[in-house]
Amino acid sequence: RDCLLSRGLGDVYKRQLVQHPRRHGIRQYQTGTEGAGNRCTLTAAQTRGAPRWPPAPIRTQARTMTAAPPPIALTIAGSEASGGAGAQTDLKTFHTLGVYGCTALTCIVSMDPKDGWNHRFVPVDPGVIADQIETCAAVHSRVDAVKIGMLGTAPTIDVVEQALQTYNFPAVVLDPVLICKGQEFGGALEVDNALRTKILPRATMTTPNLFEAATLAGMEEITSVEQLKDAAKRIHDQGVPNVLAKAGPSLGTGTALDVFYDGTTLEVLEVEAVGTERVHGAGCTLAAAVTAELAKGASPLEAAVTAKEVVSS
Ligand code: PXL
Predict the structure, then answer these.
(1) Is residue 312 helix, strand or coil?
(2) Are strands 72-80 and 100-112 parallel, antiparallel or unpaired?
(3) One digit per residue, pLDDT tens: the chain, 313 residues?
(4) C-alpha–C-alpha distance, residues 47 and 50, integer Å
(5) Whose CA is nearest to atom 1 of ligand 1?
(6) How far is residue 58's CA from residue 164's CA, in Å, rounded to a whole number?
(7) Which end of the chain, C or N, has fewer beta carbons within 10 A?
(8) 246: closest CA among 255, 238, 203?
(9) What gap in Å lies between CA 170 and CA 69, rounded to an integer?
(10) Residue 139's CB: how many other CB atoms inside 10 A?
(11) What span, in angstroms and rounded, lies between the C-alpha atoms of 143 and 138?
């Protein structure tokens, strides 16, 4: 039937359309041919020629179907205006994977075309970040997984640490952004340390890129797969149960290569590389895909494997 619910919209969108926001109390969708509350109304042309048996009721016959609510993921991240990274990318990835996304924006980044694409960075007031997280937790009542992206300042880290303590989310993926292009190194050191001591221990999984992996592991640099494995183990030893250390195409293996470690299983995950260059936002997308899969109930290793397939496809 050519109606709102079957006009080629994906299942996910259909569910979002009718289920959100929960506070509106909409938990069901209805089909029928007339009557208030029906979301699917067939025109005369659409019903012409349709089978007449069993006979159509004279008045409304609304059928009610219940659908399971979609998994919900929250991203606590910066806005990257171009849409290539940050919260925008996270939301798109969640949606693609059938997960309902909500956001708490931590900062606004606008890359400057007049200045080598350096990041103009404006932090969001910490109180406003806390408010956004409170809203997400209250509206959805159950947030299945959280992704933490760019935090950027020590006060932001404090407020996010507090929120993680308050809400005790079931899965927290930290995609650490230690320094962004154009940021002063002096300020970055304070942020790095705060991230390591306050957020890292509260993550159930972390997904550092090469630079972040080396920094968190206390290594000079990572130039080989063996060093990447070592880094994953060192980061795990700091108390994060699951580590996905991401090299992507940067180790010259001709593949997109990452290392997963959970204390017992050490897996080198490789997929065909898409080009040879590092791509802006690819790390965000991978971490968002991991978060979405965790929200759907995958194990950390399963989530990492699926996320790599998604990003390379
Ligand atoms: O890809 C890292 C990243 C994360 N979050 C924000 C960014 C960037 C890189 O530009 O701007 C907001």
Answers:
(1) helix
(2) parallel
(3) 233 333 333 343 333 433 443 333 333 333 333 333 333 333 344 444 444 545 555 554 455 567 788 999 999 999 999 999 999 999 999 999 999 999 999 999 999 999 999 889 999 999 999 999 999 999 998 999 999 999 999 999 999 999 999 999 999 999 998 865 555 555 678 888 999 999 999 999 999 999 999 999 999 999 999 999 999 999 999 999 999 999 999 999 999 999 999 999 999 999 988 766 667 888 899 999 999 999 999 999 999 999 999 988 8
(4) 5
(5) 281
(6) 55
(7) C
(8) 255
(9) 17
(10) 15
(11) 9
Q: Are strands 145-148 and 172-174 parallel, antiparallel or unpaired?
A: parallel
Dihedral sign, Cα of residue 47, residue 51, residue 55, residue 61: negative
The angle, 0 to 180 degrees and rounded to 10, between the axes of the packed helices 282-295 and 300-312 is 140
Q: Name the CA radius of gyration of the chain, rounded.
A: 23
The residue contributing the CA closest to ligand 1 atom 10 is 85
Distance 86 CA to ligand 1 centre (A): 5
User: How many angstroms separate the Cα of 139 from the Cα of each of 16, 60, 61, 133, 306?
Assistant: 14, 33, 32, 10, 29
Ligand 1 residue neighbourhood (C-beta within 6 Å)? 77-78, 80, 85-86, 109, 119, 149-150, 177, 180, 281, 283-284
The whole-angstrom separation of Cα 241 and Cα 263 is: 7
Cα 294 off chain centre by:
10
